[in-house]
């Protein structure tokens, strides 16, 4: 797989793409402080599909937002490749997101006034980047949207909408794709479709993917699952199955 | 339910800020106008009343029955015996009469002041007028000027001024003081001088009293005195108490204030109309966004009526509160206006006492509240249609995009345009008339209705066209283009608010500039002269009757006769090297059975080339001895080639009609060849008017000097420079334009608030979208630019539709009233309008864009 020309010199000899060290995020809610993240150390490797799991309020979304530069951590560092992203200003973070990160959200992933094709191409247009036509055609075929390209999102099913979002996130071969509950709003069949597609792209396209989910079945598609509770990383499973993840999660909730 | 409404209002206060501002501005205009006009009116009243109530009874000569057979009569006067009778009454302590005529006053350049000579009068011992500065004249070498005349001529107390006596001999006076004549137009426009009795009679030739003022004897009321005076002068005078007289005067002069009030209220109405559109759009959007809230209310058991009532209650609270603020602001504006603006409309100039009538306050409150509630009516009805189920849907607002435009909508819109076009065609095919612009305005309203109905379609179409270019500019512009059409109805309503102002201002500027071009063209191409020289008109015969035989010269059968331009002026001009041509006009009147016929002749002119005018028939080339040219009104059905019979003292005279001209042209009446004219009126040797044309290479200043030299010795001869006339005309049009533009500015400002509000509410609705875009790497600047382009696009569409309507209907209105109007589109002004629209759009987007850019991405992504 050829790397996108604008991607900064990623070092092939440094396997972790994203590294977080001592990540703390504190919210002030009136008198008391809430530790959403209480010192998280984690790394994500190239071509790996990782799921972040945890009960509600465990800090999974906050962790993803901090890793992606959507939110700023109170302390600690996050590196994307060799770039320390903690401490970057909004302008630099914007460019970082634009050029090096892909996003898939739970809902409201697409702009309602743009067609599927326009939505897929939107990040490239924002960046005024030349689209790799070959990769585009390949991705469109893989997600099976060929005959839906000129539809507005309101004319697409939930699964189709998420597939458009996935195609958009993958098109520019970003260093990392963050997916926040990508199947949260989908029925199980559409969900499985999207997850299979994510897993395949991680393997076939050597794409790094980090997914936040609370669904053990979704997590089972990943290569590795990390568990979060009360803002701390507490457990980790590689080659997960849905049963295994459920059991661990249950144990976590009970503890 | 009311508690829910109030809680909702508190929660969403920010959404109503711009709406409240729109209402506030409109109401401010309404109450401000009322306070300003009321204050002006009371100021006038007190000044008029003040001078009239200083005496108890005022007697003016009764107007005689008008006898059309006898022609104009000299104005009646009261005699010495009338005054004696009044003075002898036991009810009267003191009384005296006012003598009034006219005399020529020379200004500091030694030229006669005014189009007509100003009034010259003596006030007598008892008068409602008194010196406001200095003193009344105490001898034959002093006079007092009216304050308005002093202001216009620049003379002050202590200056020496020159007045011409009836024999045109100069006589010098010292200005002893100034007299405030108030707003009586006869004196404030015509000018007035006060002299002592003997001097006034000597200088004007007037005798008799035009007014007798009396003061009541002790123990008698003003009414008793007035009744007694009235009895004493029975049949020859109208007598009123000072107060009644003052009230009558005030009523007459109040008409000006009334007109000003009506004009201002018209603009206030436009502003309120625009505010109404803005309020409607705000409520419509807010209701759409609160669909889930409404549905939840219905779920927990609120009836449709209660939801409706809740929205209306909300609107009345917003309306009332904003109106209260608007009235307060209006009082402030009215106060400023009354303090600084009353000089503009001929007020006394002093600081007026502020008058705040209950009407001003109540009408402001009522207009603001009623407009708000009415504008919220349709959105409120829509709110009742929300089904309780809507509460359960996840995505309440983003919904499917409304991309449909009903066939009915299209049909109605096209029909409106067609009807409007037909009306215009009909009006323009007929004769120009004063009713034309009114009908055109009606057609414009119908077309406006078409724009309202077709608005969404127009917005989509124009955005689509603009998108062809904008999409290439960058992703921000591309997104802006897509955003502007996602809710065409909303966008259309927002831009229509701006269209109103843009149409009116463009329409007016097209009329104004076409008028100017047409007039200039008429002056330059049809009648190219540089100077027009005439004599000062004596509007009325000197009062008094007996003495005027020797002063008025060759006046025949009582017609007021303009004085002629002395022969020396003509010969001096003709011999000047800078002058190419001197044409002169001589006018006489011939009695027909029932009318005076105006007979004109032009000396030194070739009618066909020098007096080009629009012809109904014939050819001016054919003019010559024995021929006649008639203006249409005089032609009586005659056309070129017919024989026209002119009744003269020596019997009828038959002439062949050479041409018939339009009534509106330079050639008017019965035009004879100079040779025929000379035979008919052998005693006429001087000209009524001279037209001077300089040589093509003449230096304008040399020509000016030549003309000034020629009239040097004749101070009453008036010189009008065509260039100056043109300048004055353009200046007048410019002032009118700027005034109207300023008045419309408020309506435009309100519309911009509306666009800003629409943007702000849309931004609110698209919070998650903005967050998504930011997550995908759209920078804050790009987000701001996106909203900026969207707002500018909306403003430009509104302005362009307005400009188009304005040009079309401005042209139609002008052409329907003015024959041969030349359409002139003031491109520079239109360019300014477009620039204003762009700036307005940028301004409108500032607040919403800041808000959108500041929103935290994670916060917006996380929740509703």
SSE map:
The complex is a heterodimer of chains A (255) and B (864).
Chain A (H helix, E strand, L loop, with lengths): L15 E14 L2 E14 L3 E5 L6 H8 L7 E6 L2 E2 L5 H11 E4 L11 H11 L6 H11 L14 H14 L4 E5 L7 H17 L4 E4 L3 H4 L4 E6 L2 E7 L3 H13 L1
Parallel strand pairs in A: 3-8, 3-9, 6-7, 7-8
Antiparallel strand pairs in A: 1-2, 1-4, 4-5, 9-10
Helix pairs in contact in A: 3-5, 4-5, 5-6
Chain B lengths: L1 H10 L1 H40 L4 E5 L18 H9 L3 E11 L1 E3 L12 E4 L8 E4 L7 E5 H7 L6 E5 L5 E10 L5 H4 L3 E3 L2 H8 L6 E6 L5 H11 L4 E5 H48 L1 H9 L4 H38 L16 H27 L22 H23 L5 H39 L1 H10 L3 H39 L4 E5 L12 H4 L15 H8 L4 E13 L4 E8 L3 H4 L4 E4 L8 E5 H4 L7 E6 L2 E11 L8 E3 L1 H7 L8 E6 L5 H12 L5 E5 H44 L1 H9 L4 H38 L9 H28 L2 H6 L2
Parallel strand pairs in B: 4-9, 6-8, 14-19, 16-18
Antiparallel strand pairs in B: 1-10, 1-11, 2-4, 2-10, 3-7, 5-8, 6-9, 7-8, 12-20, 12-21, 13-14, 13-20, 15-18, 16-19, 17-18
Helix pairs in contact in B: 1-10, 2-8, 2-10, 2-11, 2-22, 8-11, 8-15, 8-22, 10-11, 12-13, 13-14, 13-15, 13-24, 14-24, 15-22, 15-24, 17-21, 22-24, 22-25, 24-25
3D architecture notes:
The complex is a heterodimer of chains A (255) and B (864). Chain A has a single domain, classed as P-loop containing nucleotide triphosphate hydrolases (Rossmann fold), CATH 3.40.50. Chain A has helices spanning 60-67, 90-100, 116-126, 133-143, 158-171, 188-204, 216-219, 242-254; strands at residues 16-29, 32-45, 49-53, 75-80, 83-84, 101-104, 176-180, 209-212, 224-229, 232-238. A six-stranded mixed β-sheet of chain A has the order 6-7-8-3-9-10, sandwiched between helices. A four-stranded antiparallel β-sheet of chain A has the order 2-1-4-5. By secondary structure, chain A is α/β, with parallel strands linked by helices. In chain A, 35% of the residues lie in helices and 26% in strands. Mean pLDDT of chain B is 80; it is low at 394-403 and 539-561. Chain B is an alpha+beta fold. In chain B, 47% of the residues are buried. In chain B, a hairpin with a 4-residue loop joins β13 and β14 (596-603). The longest helix of chain B has 48 residues, at 242-289. Chains A and B meet through α2 and α3 of A and α14, α23 and α26 of B.
């Amino acid at each position: 797989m050829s790397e996108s020309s604008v991607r900064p010199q990623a070092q092939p000899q440094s396997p972790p793409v994203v590294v977080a060290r001592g990540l703390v995020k504190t919210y002030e809610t009136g008198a008391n402080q809430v530790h959403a993240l209480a010192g998280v150390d984690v790394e994500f490797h190239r071509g790996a599909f990782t799921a972040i799991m945890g009960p509600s309020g465990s800090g999974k979304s906050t962790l993803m937002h901090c890793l992606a530069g959507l939110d700023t951590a109170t302390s600690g560092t996050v590196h994307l490749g060799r770039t320390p992203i903690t401490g970057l200003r909004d302008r630099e973070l914007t460019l970082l997101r634009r050029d090096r990160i892909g996003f898939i959200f739970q809902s409201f992933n697409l702009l309602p006034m743009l067609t599927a094709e326009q939505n897929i191409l939107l990040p490239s247009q924002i960046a005024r980047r030349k689209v790799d036509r070959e990769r585009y055609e390949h991705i469109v075929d893989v997600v099976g949207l060929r005959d839906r390209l000129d539809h507005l999102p309101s004319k697409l099913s939930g699964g189709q909408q998420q597939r458009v979002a996935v195609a958009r996130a993958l098109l520019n071969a970003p260093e990392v794709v963050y997916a926040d509950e990508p199947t949260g709003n989908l029925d199980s069949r559409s969900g499985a479709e999207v997850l299979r597609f994510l897993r395949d792209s991680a393997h076939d396209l050597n794409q790094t993917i980090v997914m936040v989910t609370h669904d053990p079945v979704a997590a089972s598609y990943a290569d590795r699952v990390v568990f979060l509770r009360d803002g701390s990383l507490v457990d980790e499973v590689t080659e997960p199955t849905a049963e295994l993840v459920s059991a661990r999660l249950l144990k976590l909730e009970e503890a | 339910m009311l508690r829910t409404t109030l809680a909702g209002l508190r929660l969403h206060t920010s959404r109503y800020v711009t709406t409240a501002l729109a209402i506030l501005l409109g109401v401010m205009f309404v109450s401000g106008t009322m306070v300003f006009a009321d204050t002006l009116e009371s100021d006038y009243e007190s000044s008029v009343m003040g001078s009239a109530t200083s005496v108890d009874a005022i007697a003016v000569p009764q107007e005689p029955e008008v006898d059309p057979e006898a022609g104009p009569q000299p104005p009646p006067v009261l005699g010495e015996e009338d005054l004696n009778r009044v003075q002898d009454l036991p009810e009267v302590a003191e009384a005296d009469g006012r003598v009034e005529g006219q005399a020529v006053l020379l200004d500091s350049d030694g030229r006669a002041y005014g189009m007509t000579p100003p009034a010259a009068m003596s006030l007598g011992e008892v008068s409602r007028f008194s010196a406001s500065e200095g003193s009344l004249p105490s001898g034959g070498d002093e006079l007092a000027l009216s304050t308005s005349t002093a202001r216009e001529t620049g003379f002050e107390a202590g200056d020496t001024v020159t007045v011409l006596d009836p024999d045109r001999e100069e006589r010098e006076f010292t200005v002893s003081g100034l007299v405030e004549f108030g707003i009586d137009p006869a004196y404030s426009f015509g000018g007035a001088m006060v002299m002592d009795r003997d001097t006034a009679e000597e200088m004007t030739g007037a005798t008799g009293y035009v007014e007798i003022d009396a003061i009541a004897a002790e123990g008698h009321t003003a009414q008793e005195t007035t009744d007694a005076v009235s009895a004493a002068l029975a049949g020859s005078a109208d007598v009123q108490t000072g107060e009644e007289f003052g009230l009558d005067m005030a009523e007459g002069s109040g008409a000006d204030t009334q007109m000003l009030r009506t004009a201002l209220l018209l603009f206030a109405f436009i502003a309120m109309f625009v505010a109404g559109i803005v309020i409607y759009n705000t409520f419509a959007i807010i209701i759409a966004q609160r669909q889930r809230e409404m549905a939840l209310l219905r779920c927990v058991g609120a009836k449709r009526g209660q939801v409706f009532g809740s929205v209306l209650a909300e609107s009345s609270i917003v309306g009332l509160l904003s109106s209260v603020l608007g009235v307060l602001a209006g009082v402030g504006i009215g106060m400023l206006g009354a303090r600084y603006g009353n000089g503009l409309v001929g007020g006394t100039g002093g600081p007026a006492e502020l008058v705040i009538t209950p009407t001003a306050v109540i009408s402001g409150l009522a207009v603001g509240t009623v407009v708000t509630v009415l504008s919220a009516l349709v959105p409120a009805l829509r709110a009742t249609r929300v089904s309780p189920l809507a509460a359960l849907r996840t995505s309440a607002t983003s919904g499917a995009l409304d991309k449909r435009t009903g066939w009915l909508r299209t049909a109605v819109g096209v029909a409106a345009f067609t009807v409007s076009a037909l009306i215009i065609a009909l009006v323009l095919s007929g004769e120009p008339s004063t009713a034309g612009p009114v009908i055109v305005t009606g057609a414009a309203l119908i077309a406006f209705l078409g724009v309202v109905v077709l608005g969404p379609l127009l917005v989509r179409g124009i955005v689509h066209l603009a998108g062809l270019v904008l999409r290439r500019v960058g992703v921000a512009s591309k997104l802006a283009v897509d955003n502007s059409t996602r809710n065409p109805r909303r966008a259309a309503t927002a831009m229509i608010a701006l269209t109103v102002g843009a149409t009116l201002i463009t329409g007016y500027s097209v009329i104004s500039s076409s008028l100017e071009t047409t007039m200039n063209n008429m002056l330059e191409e049809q009648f190219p002269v540089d100077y027009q020289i005439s004599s000062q008109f004596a509007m009325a015969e000197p009062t008094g009757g007996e003495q005027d035989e020797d002063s008025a010269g060759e006046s025949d059968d009582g017609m007021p006769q303009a004085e002629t331009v002395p022969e020396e002026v003509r010969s001096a001009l003709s011999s000047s090297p800078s002058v190419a041509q001197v044409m002169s006009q001589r006018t006489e009147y011939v009695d027909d059975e029932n009318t005076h016929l105006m007979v004109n002749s032009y000396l030194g002119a070739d009618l066909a080339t020098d007096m080009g005018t629009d012809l109904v028939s014939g050819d001016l080339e054919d003019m010559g001895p024995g021929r006649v040219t008639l203006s249409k009104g005089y032609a009586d059905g005659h056309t070129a080639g017919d024989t026209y019979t002119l009744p003269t003292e020596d019997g009828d005279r038959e002439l062949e009609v050479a041409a018939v001209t339009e009534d509106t042209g330079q050639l008017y009446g019965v035009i004879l060849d100079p040779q025929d004219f000379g035979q008919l009126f052998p005693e006429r040797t001087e000209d009524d008017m001279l037209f001077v044309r300089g040589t093509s290479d003449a230096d304008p200043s040399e020509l000016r000097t030549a003309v000034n030299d020629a009239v040097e010795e004749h101070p009453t001869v008036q010189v009008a420079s065509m260039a100056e006339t043109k300048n004055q005309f353009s200046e007048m049009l410019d002032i009118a334009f700027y005034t109207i533009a300023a008045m419309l500015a408020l309506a435009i400002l309100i519309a911009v608030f509306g666009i800003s509000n629409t943007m702000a509410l849309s931004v609110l609705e698209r919070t998650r979208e903005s967050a998504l875009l930011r997550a995908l790497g759209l920078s804050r600047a790009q987000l701001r630019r996106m909203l900026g382009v969207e707002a500018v696009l909306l403003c430009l569409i509104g302005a362009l539709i307005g400009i188009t309507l304005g040009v079309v209907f401005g042209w139609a209105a002008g052409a329907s009233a003015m024959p041969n109007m030349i359409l002139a589109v003031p491109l520079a002004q239109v360019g300014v309008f477009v620039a204003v629209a762009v700036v307005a759009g940028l301004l409108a987007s500032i607040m919403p864009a800041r808000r959108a850019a500041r929103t935290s991405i994670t916060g917006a992504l996380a929740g509703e």
